[in-house]
Specification:
The protein is mainly α. 70% of the residues lie in helices and 0% in strands. The protein has four helices and no strands. The model has no long low-confidence stretch (mean pLDDT 89).
Length: 119
C-alpha cells in the first residue's frame, strides 16, 4: 500500500502541531472571556441581558467548534504516528498533498468526498 514518506509525515506533523497550538490558545482565550463575562454578570434591569446571552452563546459555540477541530487534529496526529495519514478512508489511495495542506485533518480525497456526497 502506498503511504507518504517520513519526510512528508514530519511536515504534516509540524503543520498539525502548529494548528493544535493555535487551537489551545483560542480555547484559553474563549475560557477567559467567559470567566470575565460571568464575573461581570447580567445587567439587573434586563436591558443588557440579550447582549450577555448572545456573547455567552457565541463563546460556547466557538469553544465547541474549536474543541471538535482539536479532536480532529489529535486523530490526524495519531494517523501520522501509525503512518496511515493521507490515505483516503474510502478509496485507500493517497490524498493529494495540496488537499492535505488546505485541510490537514481530512480523511477523504476530493473525488471520494464528491462521490460520497452524491450518494
Amino acid at each position: 500500500m502506498n503511504r507518504y514518506s517520513d519526510k512528508d509525515l514530519n511536515f504534516f506533523n509540524a503543520l498539525l502541531e502548529g494548528k493544535k497550538s493555535i487551537c489551545i490558545e483560542q480555547i484559553e482565550n474563549y475560557k477567559a472571556q467567559l470567566e470575565e463575562i460571568s464575573a461581570n454578570g447580567k445587567d439587573e434591569n434586563g436591558l443588557e441581558n440579550a447582549g450577555y446571552n448572545t456573547q455567552v452563546e457565541y463563546l460556547m459555540t466557538s469553544l465547541d467548534r474549536i474543541r471538535s477541530y482539536l479532536y480532529e487534529i489529535d486523530n490526524a496526529l495519531i494517523r501520522i504516528k501509525n503512518k496511515s495519514y493521507g490515505i483516503c478512508s474510502i478509496s485507500n489511495e493517497l490524498i493529494d498533498k495540496k488537499r492535505l495542506v488546505a485541510v490537514p485533518t481530512t480523511t477523504k480525497s476530493i473525488l471520494s468526498k464528491q462521490l460520497k456526497t452524491k450518494e
